[in-house]
C-alpha cells in the first residue's frame, strides 16, 4: 500500500524479555529474532496481547495483563512475571517517545520456547500503526457475516449474576482445548480476513446461525439510544478488553451497558454497530453484507466515548 | 530429557529457501532465523511438511511434495517451486551425510512472510531424531482416546469410486477454512498431547463419538489378518502420506488395504493398531485408555512392511 504516513519510517522497537525476569535488552529489528526450533514458529504454540501506546501510557494495561496471564495459564505456560512485562513495556514506550509522539502498537509475545532448551521465549515489539488501520478507524469498515466454520463442542449453561447480567458458563468437552486463550494459532482468522478482502469487504463478523459472535480480531458492540450491547463473552467468544473498558467507562457516563445475546436483526436495527479492539480502537460498520448502515448523528460522540474509555 | 544418543550432538542444518527460486544458502543454526514480524511467528500463518531422511534419499518425497503444494494452495500462498525445494532438500541431505549416516528429520516450512515485505519466507531444517521418537518407534505408545473438542461444520457426501473404495467428499460451510492443510497453527494438537502426557499417556487418538478420526500428529492404521484399515481421510482427517505409501506397498505384497469408517471396537479387536507418520514411522499402540493391547505375533513383520513402504 502506498503511504505518506511519516510514522512508517519510525524504526520498530524490540525488547527481548527474560521469561523469568532478569535483564531487559533491546534487539535490533533488522536482525532475525526467533530461532528455527521455537514453538511459536513450528507450532503457533504461544500467546500474545496487543496494546495501544498513547501519550505517556499503555492503554487498558490492567485488562490486557490479566488476559495475558489467563491465556498463559490455559496454555500451561509458566506464569509470567507481570511487573517485569510492565517495566519492559514502559521502557519500550520511553524509547518510542524519543522518536515520535504518535500512537503505536505494542505486542507482547510469550511462547513455549525452543525445542532444544525448553525455556519459554518472550519479547515485546512496538511498531507504527498502519495507514490501513488508521483509515478504518476514521472511515469504518464493510463487513461480511459468516459462520465461524467450526463449533467448539461443549456443555453450556446460562445463569444470571447479582446485577442481573446473563452469564454464560461453558465447558469444552476437550478439557485441554485452549478456548478463550489468545494464541498464536491464528491461521483460520487470517484466512477468513483474506476471503473477506477478496470479496470486497474489510472485515468479518462470525455468526452461529442467526446469533452474533465476534469480529475476526475484534468485539462487536451495538448502540441504540442510550444502550450499548455486546454478545455474551465466553466459550469461543474471546472476552474483549476494549469492550470491557468501554462498558465500564460508558456506564459511568449514563449509558446502559449489557452483554446480551445479539441476533442479526439487532445489528440491522441498531443506530450504529462497532468493531472494537485495542489498536484500531473502534471501526464503525458501514455495511453488513449487502445492507448499508447509515452514519448515525452521534458517530463522533460514540467514537470519543470509546477513545475516552482507553484514555486515548 | 537425559540422552546418550550420539545423534544429539550432530549440529542441525538450516537452509534458507528463496520462495521464488534463486540461491540456496545455509543459515547458522546458532543464530535466530525468523524476523519478529513474520506471519509464522505472529499468526501461525504458514504450512509445513516433515520428511524422513534415510540413506541417500528423502522418504516418500513425492507425496510430501504434493501435500505441501495442496496446503499452500489452501492457504492461498504463491505456488512453491518444487524442483527448487527438492534441490535444497538434496543439498541438506548431502551435508547431513558428511556428518553422520543416521536418519534425520527434515522439515519444510513456508510462511506468508514478513508484514513489512509481504514476501513469503521459506526454509528447510534437518535435525537429529529425538530419543523420545526412537523409543516410541521401538516400544510403542500408550494412547488416550478423546473427542477432538471441535467440529468442522460441513456438508458431507459419501460416494464409491471405480475400485469400490468409499470416498468422502466434504465441504466446510466456511469456504476459506484451511481444513486439510498442514498449517503452523498447531496449538490445539500440542495442548492435547500435553494433556495426554500429564495423564500417563504418550499420544492421543481423536474420536467423534465412537468413530475413529486420527492421531494428534499421525494416521491410525489397524491390522487384522491380512487386512489393513485406516479411517477415510478428508474433512478434518488429514490424508496421511505414510499411510498412503504403506497401503500402496502392502497391496503389492498381498495385503488387503482399504480406507473405511473405523469404530472403537475395531481398534480393540484388531490384531494390532499403529500410529503411522513420517519420522516416527510406526508406533504400535500398546494401550488404548485402560485396555492393554497384546503384542501381536507379527509385530516385526508389520514394522518391516511400513519401513519397506518408505524405503527406510
From TrEMBL, chains A, B:
Protein name as annotated: 4-amino-4-deoxychorismate lyase
One Gene Ontology CC term in the entry: cytosol
Pfam families documented for this protein: Aminotran_4
Biological process annotations from GO: carboxylic acid biosynthetic process
GO molecular function term, any single one: 4-amino-4-deoxychorismate lyase activity
InterPro entries linked to this entry: Aminotrans_IV (IPR001544), Aminotransferase-like (IPR036038), BCAT-like_C (IPR043132), BCAT-like_N (IPR043131), Class-IV_PLP-Dep_Aminotrnsfr (IPR050571)
Keyword list, A-Z: Lyase
PANTHER family according to UniProt: AMINO-ACID AMINOTRANSFERASE, AMINODEOXYCHORISMATE LYASE
EC number: 4.1.3.38
Similarity annotation: Belongs to the class-IV pyridoxal-phosphate-dependent aminotransferase family.
